[in-house]
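User: Hey, my collaborator sent me this sequence without any context and asked if I could get a structure. I don't really work with proteins. Can you help?
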Amino acid sequence: MPSSHAEAPLQLPDFETSVLERIARADGEAVYQETLVRSLKTSRIRLQAAIDRLEGLELVEVYSDYEDDDRLFLTARGRRYVVDRNIA
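Assistant: No problem. I've predicted the 3D structure and written it out in structure-token form, which is a compact way to encode the shape of the chain:
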């Protein structure tokens, strides 16, 4: 029997929303983690925690390269989230 309760809309903290906004502004291009650290004026630890959560929510994809910094992209769900909320 289907649930009669609708799923609550996803609400992200301001910092995670800022991370999504920066990635969305790249318009499909890779965003490097170190670039986000500098542009958001934050620590790698704080950024990594936000990325881990966003990846768990399937809003971002992370591509790791041993010779390069991690590259970040929005997923289809992440793009819908950004567009639906006029984030970028």
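In plain terms: The beta strands are 31-32, 60-63, 71-74. You can pass these tokens on to your collaborator as they are.
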